UniProtKB/TrEMBL annotation:
One of its GO terms (molecular function) is ribose-5-phosphate isomerase activity. This is Ribose 5-phosphate isomerase B. Its EC number is 5.3.1.6. It comes from Phnomibacter ginsenosidimutans. The active site is at residues 71, 104. D-ribulose 5-phosphate binds at residues 14-15, 72-76, 105, 115, 138, 142. InterPro entries: RpiB, RpiB_LacA_LacB, RpiB_LacA_LacB_sf. One of its GO terms (biological process) is pentose-phosphate shunt, non-oxidative branch.
Length: 149
């Protein structure tokens, strides 16, 4: 399944991801997408869960098509987003990983480490994430076992 790109795209970040968030938001808006910004606006130190939770909730509740999260390592935002039952957040540092989290895991949030991935590569990963559909098949059974119910 592909994303419903008629819905807004959720984006969130902590202080380490402000520059990336602003650049990605502008890039997406230039492409004609609506972006719901749940992120920090300054580089003053903040707590990443305060921004990851509303980003994830907007995807989980169907307000947004998918989410993009940035923090220094992307681990904190990925851990936080994955606390939401309807979220499958994947940490990406490579374009092939961005493709595989969609193909095999039906990820609906991409988490990018702003301190370890160059911005042009982050844009490439987001483009890949957005344009890759879930493969289904044998992966659907596995994805169906992820949620704790």
């Amino acid at each position: 399944m592909s994303f419903d790109l008629s819905l807004p795209i959720a984006i969130g970040n902590d202080h380490a991801g402000v520059e990336y968030k602003m650049a990605v938001k502008h890039w997406l808006q230039q492409k004609g997408f609506v972006v719901n910004d749940y992120g920090a606006m300054t580089t003053d130190s903040v707590d990443y869960p305060d921004f990851a939770h509303p980003t994830a909730a907007s995807v989980e509740n169907g307000v947004c098509a998918f989410g993009i999260l940035f923090c220094g390592s992307a681990n904190g935002v990925a851990i936080t987003a994955n606390k939401h039952q309807g979220i499958r957040a994947g940490l990406c540092w490579d374009n092939e990983v961005a493709k595989l989290i969609r193909l095999h895991n039906d990820a609906n949030v991409i988490c990018i480490p702003a301190r370890f991935v160059a911005l042009p590569y982050a844009l490439q990963m987001i483009e890949t994430f957005m344009s890759t559909a879930f493969e289904g098949g044998r992966h659907a059974n596995r994805v169906g076992k992820i949620a704790c119910q």
